[in-house]
Amino acid sequence: MKLFRIITGVLLSAFIIAVLPVGCNAGGKTTSGTVTYANPLPVAFGDPFILSASDGKYYMYGTGGVEKGFGAYSSDNLVDWQFEGQVYSGEQPGSWTAGNYWAPEVYEIDGRYYMFFSADWKENPTHELENFRIGVAVADRPTGPFTEISDAPLFDPGYPVIDANILQYDGKTYLYYSRCCYKHPVESEVAGWARDENLFDEIEESWVYGVEISNDFTSVTGEPVLLLQPPSTMQDPQTEWESRSVTSGEVNRRWTEGSFAFEYDGKIYMMYSANFFGGENYAVGYAIADNPLGPFVKAANNPVLEKNTASGGDVTGTGHNMVFRSKEGGKLYCVYHGRTRKTGDERVVFLDAMKIDKNGVLTVEGPSTTEKEL
Fold it and tell me: Rounded to an integer, what distance in angstroms lies between the CA atom of residue 119 and that of residue 90?
């Protein structure tokens, strides 16, 4: 079975994951009955994730909106979204967490709901400023309450990790995650350039890894494999867009995070975000592999999603996306967060159509803010 498999117009979802045509309660219907909407959606989440559940409703999860945990929204008609309140709390008895709850993803499996998430680990004897790990919680309903399946994180790689994403392929389960930039200085031509320009003494990087885990989500069964990292040379065609937070003088970090993997037409696609998640240069690219653990090759048309201010728009900070097909029509969509002049620093949810052509080239029709049909 595949956890998330998109095959030229057909979605096979053994775990009923992220198969939702999304609208917003600012939208409506045309005289023909077509649902319309306009970005941003009325949901103030970072790192949005959408689940199509077997109860006939649709659920959106993300970072923010509640204290010390995660909230959720539900929709019956894909236009009107209702806040369901807090669905997971890190203050439950025996929790391994200590704060900073990020990037939930929820999967329906045999009538139960499993949430993968990132949080600070309370075991922190050296008082690290970033002590993130990945955990799993389970519930009988998509609105929770979600209870952690263990009093410890899923695993400890020895460095802080965030942004869990799951793919099941040929009977095996793979976890993708991002190693944080924290205490991870990396030498590269970009780092040398930053020193020469008197911008930064060193550049820290985050990298995306993949690792096989048990099918019951309780343990790691393989060794982590490095899959994606920022380019090391100034001549690399990916260097310019993946280094904008550094070259603009914003911060001494280069991120590769927010991965989302899916199978399409026999290939594994991995979308990922680069640059500072709190800045205007946050953007999305993708890479393709023949196997879940790579090697992945970055696409020549990256980035596929970035700020549109240079073309007269007002959207910035586009990133941490997911992908799904609509139930009606099988249209491919990209869901992500971004910012506008009106929303300021608050991250809000965007939805734009996405295509993969006959040559395997992926494009996103966004960021958009005009009214359009789903």
Answer: 9
Question: Is 48:60 a contact under the CB 8 Å cutoff?
Answer: yes
Q: In angstroms, rounded to a whole number, what is the distance separating the alpha carbons of residues 10 and 18?
A: 14
Q: Which CATH superfamily is domain 5-373 in?
A: Glycosyl hydrolase domain; family 43 (2.115.10.20)
**Secondary structure of residue 79 in the 3-state scheme:** coil
- Which residue, 41, 9, 25, 103, is CA-closest to 352? 41
* pLDDT one-digit tens code per residue, 44-71: 999 999 888 888 888 999 999 999 999 9
Q: Which residue has the higher pLDDT, 114 or 76?
A: 114
pLDDT in tens, 121-151: 999 999 999 999 999 999 999 999 999 999 9
* This prediction's pTM: 0.91
CA distance between the termini of the chain: 29
Look-up of token digits 């982590």 = 224
Torsion angles phi and psi, residue 56, rounded to 5 = 90, -5
Rounded distance between C-alpha atoms, residue 220 and residue 140, angstroms: 24
Residue 48 in contact with residue 335, Cβ under 8 Å? yes
